[in-house]
Amino acid sequence: MTRQNRHLTRLALSLLFGCAPLTLSAYAQELKDATPAHSSADAAAATKAMAEHQGIWKWVVPPVKMNGAFDDHDPIGLVAGKLIPADCAFNWTDPDTHKLYCFTSATSLVFFLDSPQTYIPEAEKNWRALKGKLAKPR
Fold first, then answer.
1. Which one of 3, 10, 84, 121 is CB 3.0 to 4.6 Å from 74, fit for a cystine?
2. Does residue 31 lie within any of the structural domains?
3. Which parts of the chain fold into alpha helices (H)?
C-alpha cells in the first residue's frame, strides 16, 4: 500500500469514528512536509492572478462604462424580478433598435438570445416597477 493510500485510508476511518480534526491536521502537516518549498510561491502567484482577473470566464471587462439599457442591469434578472447589475463584459445590441443590453454571464446572454423579443417587453415592464420601488423613500 502506498503512503498516500495509507493516509487516505486513515482519513476515511477517522471520519467514520469521529476523529476527523486530529487526522486532518496530521494529514495536512504531512502533505506540507512532503511538498517542495517552491509550490507555496506558485500557489501565491496563482491566487494573485485569480484575484486580479476576478474569474476565468470573462475575456475583457470594458474599460469605460457602456451605458446599456436598464442602467446596465441584466435583462434576464429583470424578467425574474431582480435587479442584477452587469459590467457589460457580455453584451448584445438589438439590430432593430440599436439598444445595448448588458449581461452578468454568458449563460444569461445565451438564454436571452433564445427569444429576445419575448424577454425585452417583460424586462421593460419589470424595470419600470422595480425602478419605482427604488425611487420611493424608505
1. 84
2. yes
3. 3-17, 20-34, 38-53, 69-72, 75-79, 106-113, 116-135
- The share of the chain scoring above pLDDT 90, in percent, equals 43
Residue 19 belongs to what domain range? 3-52
How far apart (Å, rounded) are the C-alpha atoms in residues 3 and 119? 57
What residue type is assigned to position 128 of the chain? R
Mean pLDDT, all residues of the chain = 76
Beta-bridge mates of residue 91:
102
Mean pLDDT score, 10-32 = 52
CA dihedral 66, 71, 76, 82 (to 10 degrees): 140
Number of domains observed in the structure of the chain: 2
* C-alpha cell of residue 24: 486532518
Element containing residue 101 per DSSP (H, E): strand 100-103
